[in-house]
Amino acid sequence: MAENTVTLAHGAGGKQTSELISKVFKAHFSNPEFTADDAAVLNIPQDRIAFTTDGFIVSPFEFNGGNIGKLSICGTVNDLSCMGAKPMYMTCAFVIEEGFPMDKLEEIAAAMEKTAKEAGVKIVAGDTKVAGKGQVDKVFITTTGIGCIMDNAHTSGTYAKPGDAVIVTGDVGRHGCTILLARDEYGIDADVDSDCAPLWGTVESLYTVTDDIHVIRDATRGGVGTVLYEIAEQSKVGIRLNAADIPVDPAVKGVCGMLGLEPLYLACEGRLVIFAPQDKAQAIVDKLHEGKYSKNAAIIGTVTEDNVGRVVMETEIGAQTLLPQPGGELLPRIC
Amino acid sequence: MNEKIKAARDIITNYSGRPLRIMEVCGTHTHEIFKIGLRKLLPENVELISGPGCPVCVTPVGFIDEACWLALEKGCVITTFGDLIRVPGTEMSLAGARAKGAQVRPVYSPMDAVEMARQNPDEQIVFLAVGFETTTPSACLAAETAKKEGLENFSLLTANKTMPNAYAALEGSADAFLYPGHVNAITGTGICEELKAKGVSGVVAGFTASELLTAMAVILKNAESGEPFFVNCYPRVVKAEGNPAAQKLVAKVMEPCDSEWRGLGVIPMSGMKLKDEYAEYDARKKYAMPKITGKPNPACRCGDVLQGKCKPSDCKVFGRGCTPEHPVGACMVSDEGACSAYYQYGME
């Protein structure tokens, strides 16, 4: 039994640590740049790079549509992508609870490699620590990534302009809803899977339509609604949404209805919010509809000069209301 | 916008009859009405008032004090719907009691509390039974189950309320009521017919945008004549006879009693308590609780808000000392509370 679980010895830096690294990590992260030295040596082809890091503590670590491994790659890949940066290299650091099943660790590593490959990013260095039973909950991962920013990409949360169209690349709230159901605290069953996906390809496709893209954000914790309030604040503009245009999976809508939740505030892990000039919006959405992870992309609203810092919703009965501001932590450990 | 919504919208926006005050008496209605922006469509002479329909909001300060007493003096584990944890008591909320070492755990149903009692025989589990006809049957089921299984470590602190006598107490507050569909699904529509006979008008409303808009249009249409009216606008769920199985269970386990409502004071026979046969599951009897009377914060006007005497924004502490993060009054705590809805949806 002990052989099939991670033990404190695996984290002690000796023979068993080497075994763990070669059996699990090297076996999966197979690329020539995966370092055996203290640090990876990289060739960076451009002068503008994006650099980011993110920690993952999602509970449960496996869920419909992914696991913490896939999530840990998507999170960092998507953060880089939102800056118009092609993800190049990543590192990952694991904190594993003593007794964690080895086969599950392999599944996590395999999901990481598969996702990294899809995103075109190389995992070049890693670290493993093992914590005693109860000192950490199963497995935590931190990933760090570097990407090269495309010459034609200039996006920032401060660039939204009155008249811009607001686009989402797919239906909202799936990841948050999936995690909520996976915890089984509400006794609700529904067929929902996480939208967790690496979005570099999606971002790249935008730039085949136009360079004139003002803001790209991935809607993670806090969902699309939180992103919209952030952008309204940063760009000093108002945002008007049309409730009927916001794509929501019927099952997600059902769960939210039962629990009194707003899908716009549930986390996504594979959705971008894009601000671009109105005259480019339809072409962008048409392009997005061709993509694997953006088939349900939609224009959900516009940027306004008035209502600065606010998100106003045109409701299904044709009245305008304020989208309530995000409250406190809706669900802890969502990613 | 579909045809049905458009037709109802036209009736509402074109209303030119006498001035009307309409009261919704269901917290979920309050929330949905804000969410869809229904108030924004109403003509100037139609006012929509939020009545005492949010279970958390009508629960008096003294009830929170009783729960804190059980937790801190008797060491009971308090189980409750989450919203209640942040409602201020005289000296502290249950969250405050928790900071002093009390055990307070949110549950999603009274049966979860029963399960907790089964799993933890060394702990005394108390469930805070609040709410209207909709939630009372599940509290009764919990008491009934505990009695059947002989669970000795489970009891209820009851503050269950019933609507009929509250309508009487609210007489004169409104020209028509938007009756709470989920309550009528249990009780049936007999009470609404009786109120009509006494000259009180209203419609039973559902909860979708289309259902709420339709119900509002039906009120405005019927109000023109000036005659009392009643229409069931939620027939897919609400039947005239209600839910007899739930009614039977409640009648077996509980009986009416006088009950204190925040802002409305004690309304005779407007509450439910456990019958004597279930005394060992009644936390007040089980722990020989002394009489505890709460003192609400004098600055808070939740009581007036619940009676439609003032708007949340008329209260001096609204949005200043009292916000959803730091509520002074109960109506700011729950998403279904009028103050919370006013605050979140930016109504001044």
List the helices and strands and how they pair.
The complex is a heterodimer of chains A (335) and B (348).
Chain A: H1 15-28, E1 49-56, E2 62-63, E3 66-67, H2 68-81, E4 85-97, H3 102-119, E5 122-131, E6 139-149, E7 164-168, H4 174-182, H5 200-209, E8 215-218, H6 223-235, E9 238-242, H7 250-259, E10 272-277, H8 278-290, E11 298-304, E12 311-314, E13 320-322
Parallel strand pairs in A: 4-5, 9-12
Antiparallel strand pairs in A: 1-6, 2-3, 4-6, 7-10, 7-11, 8-10, 9-11, 12-13
Chain B: H1 3-13, E1 20-24, H2 27-36, H3 38-41, E2 46-50, H4 55-58, H5 61-73, E3 77-80, H6 94-99, E4 103-106, H7 110-119, E5 125-129, H8 136-149, E6 154-158, E7 160-161, H9 164-169, E8 176-180, H10 181-187, H11 190-197, E9 201-205, H12 209-223, E10 230-232, H13 244-253, E11 254-261, E12 265-274, H14 283-286, H15 302-306, H16 338-344
Parallel strand pairs in B: 1-2, 1-8, 3-4, 3-5, 5-6, 8-9, 9-10
Antiparallel strand pairs in B: 7-12, 11-12
Helix pairs in contact in B: 1-12, 7-8, 8-13
Question: Can you walk through the features of this model?
Answer:
The complex is a heterodimer of chains A (335) and B (348). In chain A, 30% of the residues lie in helices and 24% in strands. Chain A has a seven-stranded mixed sheet. A four-stranded mixed sheet of chain A has the order 1-6-4-5. Chain A has 335 residues and is α+β, with helices and mostly antiparallel strands. The two termini of chain A are 30 Å apart. Chain A folds into two domains: 2-149, 2-Layer Sandwich (60s Ribosomal Protein L30, Chain: A), CATH 3.30.1330.10; 164-322, PurM-like C-terminal domain (Phosphoribosyl-aminoimidazole Synthetase, Chain A, domain 2), CATH 3.90.650. Chain A has helices at residues 15-28, 68-81, 102-119, 174-182, 200-209, 223-235, 250-259, 278-290, and strands spanning 49-56, 62-63, 66-67, 85-97, 122-131, 139-149, 164-168, 215-218, 238-242, 272-277, 298-304, 311-314, 320-322. Chain B has 348 residues and is α/β, with parallel strands linked by helices. Chain B has two domains: 1-294, 3-Layer(aba) Sandwich (Rossmann fold); 302-339, no CATH class. In chain B, the strands form three sheets. A five-stranded parallel sheet of chain B has the order 2-1-8-9-10, with helices on both faces. In chain B, strands 4-3-5-6 form a four-stranded parallel sheet, sandwiched between helices. The longest helix of chain B is centred in the middle third of the chain and has 15 residues, at 209-223. The chains are: A alpha+beta (335), B alpha/beta (348).
